[in-house]
Design brief:
Blueprint (H helix, E strand, L loop, with lengths): L1 H5 L2 H37 L3 H30 L2
Helix pairs in contact: 2-3
């Protein structure tokens, strides 16, 4: 019973789940950005302008989402 009062296992599990989800999510967003930039370059070289624009927009959107996730993380760490 003493261990139950020292460690709040529910809060610990929530922290672990949130950090795993955030870690995988931010990594996946950045992977989409890298993939989209590579496909943008391929499509642009191949003369496929419409596909290049679509991949370029996806790359820009994922970079904005990545930057937003970083900002939210910094705000969450520095706030009380």
């Amino acid at each position: 019973m003493l261990l139950a009062t020292i460690v709040d296992s529910k809060a610990l599990l929530q922290s672990v789940a949130a950090s795993v989800i955030a870690g995988v999510g931010v990594t996946a967003i950045f992977c989409v950005a890298i993939f989209s930039f590579a496909r943008f370059a391929d499509m642009n070289r191949g003369g496929r302008g419409g596909a290049a624009v679509a991949y370029g927009l996806l790359a820009c959107f994922s970079l904005v989402a990545f930057a937003g996730a970083i900002v939210v993380g910094i705000i969450a760490m520095t706030s009380k």
